[in-house]
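Summary for the lay section of the report: proteins are chains of building blocks that fold into shapes. Here we show the chain for Transcriptional regulator BldD and then a coded description of the shape we predicted for it.
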Amino acid sequence: MSSEYAKQLGAKLRAIRTQQGLSLHGVEEKSQGRWKAVVVGSYERGDRAVTVQRLAELADFYGVPVQELLPGTTPGGAAEPPPKLVLDLERLAHVPQEKAGPLQRYAATIQSQRGDYNGKVLSIRQDDLRTLAVIYDQSPSVLTEQLISWGVLDADARRAVQHEDI
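The coded shape description reads as follows.
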C-alpha cells in the first residue's frame, strides 16, 4: 500500500470516527478492547497497513459499508469533512458596523437560538455561509475571502468553500 493511499485511507477512517463522536479511546471502550486506540490511531495516520479483513471488521464496527472507507470513493459523502467555519466574534466586534452589520445580526441570531453566549467564537455551517453570501450579494468564496481579510474567519475556511461555490 502506497504511503499516500494509506494516508487517504486513514483520513477516511478518522472522518468516520469523528462523525460518530468517538475519540480513539472511545473506540477502544466501545469495542470492549477489540480495537486498541494505538492501533486505530496508527491506521488513521497511515503509519500501519490495515488488512482487507481488518478493514471490513472496522467498517462493520462503525456500521458503514467498506467502500465508504476506501480512498477515491465518496458515495455517502464520508470523505474527510471540510474544515469548520468558525467566526471570531471578538474580531467581528471591531469590524465597522457598515461592513459587518448583517453578519453581526446573523451571528447574534444563531447565538440566541443556540443559547451560546461565550462571545469568543461561533461555529457556522456551510448553509449559513451560503445564506450570508446571498445577504452580501456575493459568492461564498468571495465572501469567505472578505471575512478572512477582516480577520473574522481563519484562512483554512477557503478549503470549506472550494467545491461549494454557487
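Put simply, here is one thing we learned. The first strand starts at residue 85 and ends at 88.
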